[in-house]
Amino acid sequence: MQKIVVLNPKGGSGKTTIATNLASYFAVEKLRPTLMDMDAQGSSTHWLSKRTQEQPLIHGIAAYERNTGLTRSFATRLPLDTQRLVVDTPAAVEPQKLPDITRNATAVLVPVLPSDIDIHAAAKCISNLLLIAKLRRDEQRIAVIANRVKKQTLIYKSLMKFLENLQIPVIATLRDAQVYIRSAETGLGLFEMKPHGVREDLEQWLPLVGWLAQRKPLPIEPGTPAITSTLASAPKTATTSLDSIVAPAAQEARIPSAPERTVPAAPSAKPVLAQALAAQPKPAAQASTPPPVSPAAVMNAIASSASALTPRASGAKKIERSESLLPSLLRRVFG
After folding, report:
1. The CATH number of the domain where 77 resides is what?
2. Residue 106 within any structural domain of the chain
3. How far is CA 165 from CA 64, 89, 171, 248, in A?
4. Torsion 241-244-247-250 (CA) sign
5. 189-208 tens-digit pLDDT
6. pLDDT for 202-257, tens place per residue?
7. What percentage of the chain carries pLDDT values higher than 90?
8. Helix, strand, or coil here: 246?
9. 223, 238, 255, 301: which has the fewest C-beta neighbours closer than 10 Å?
10. What does the CA dihedral 66, 69, 72, 73 come to, rounded to 10 degrees?
11. Which SS3 state, helix, strand or coil, does residue 34 take?
């Protein structure tokens, strides 16, 4: 089973949009997804409530609810047939909760909007994932999604220059489109809409779903709790200023607003994010931006052994991997 966490403590970055459309894609591909909503606003749960019985089934877990009659582990247990778990995290999640949220995660997706504030928030988020959640960069479990972009703008170029300095893969660039608003209003996923109206957007999702298909599943059994504790008593984590988080090279990518503002640099301390990246072993080769993905490349990647589902506990029947995870999506986009 794969556990995919969509995370960015900055509110309004598009976490729910990505989580719901990922769950929709897995449902269309008959991969029996579970969508866990940790946000107290309940946006993902509300989206699920709009779906009809005729649509592909997506199991929902409202992890934000507190039931005094149930333990946390029992309330967040997964259905036995779950193959994909998508976790929609809340805004302002505390750094000390990251190890629990990301435990056994196949992938941690960080959506970033093209704005100066979001760039700073993304830097702090990735720094916490490396230093507090202890996700190693060479494991390639962290990936960035450039969300709601307009490619002809200066701030988009600023965002991409900043992401290149993070040495974290940018696996998708999603445009700012009305189709996502329609998805939120109707309970439909992008992959359930008429292909002729969403062709360009489906093409932008191909690198994302192809990258996820190559992730090696980590041990988490269906029927077990997805979140084991709330870490309410966890020790407080030392905080740092935002200016000490962004690497100096990333600071050059900022587009100042008029009139020009100068931000004082941190006093001779090495930036936290730069220190975290330097402490991590560098992979042999890692692209900063996703290469163009053809249908054949996606199919070959999905057919690799890395995308095979792991068997359940010893003695249990092995889950058979489907011949292809993207047949319907490829037909929608290219056929």
Report:
1. 3.40.50.300
2. yes
3. 35, 25, 15, 9
4. positive
5. 999 999 998 999 999 999 99
6. 999 999 999 999 988 776 666 666 665 443 333 344 444 444 444 444 444 444 44
7. 47
8. coil
9. 238
10. -150
11. strand
Residue 265 above 60 pLDDT? no
Amino acid at 305: S
Is residue 242 included in any domain, yes or no?
A: no
Each residue's pLDDT tens digit, 8-39: 999 999 999 999 999 999 999 999 999 999 99
Cβ–Cβ under 8 Å, residues 187 and 180: no
Q: Give the chain's count of helices (H) and strands (E).
A: 12, 7
Handedness of CA 63, 69, 74, 78 (dihedral sign): negative
Whether residue 73 is contained in a domain is answered as yes
| Number of domains the chain contains | 1
Helix ranges (H only) for the chain are: 15-28, 43-49, 72-75, 98-102, 116-131, 154-166, 179-186, 195-213, 248-251, 272-279, 295-303, 327-334
Strand order of the sheet with strand 107-112?
59-62, 33-37, 84-88, 2-6, 107-112, 142-149, 170-175
Which of 324 and 227 is assigned the larger pLDDT? 227
Task: Please give the DSSP secondary-structure letter assigned to residue 159.
Answer: H
- Asked if residues 21 and 190 have their Cβ atoms less than 8 Å apart, the reply is yes
Contacts (Cβ under 8 Å, ≥6 apart) of 48 = 35, 58, 60, 187
Domain span at 117? 2-231+283-334
Rounded to whole angstroms, the Cα distance separating 104 from 99 reads: 10
Give the pLDDT score at 270. 43
pLDDT of res. 294: 56
pLDDT in tens, 71-119: 667 677 888 889 999 999 999 999 999 999 999 899 999 999 998 899 8
CA atoms within 13 A on the CB side of 104: 17
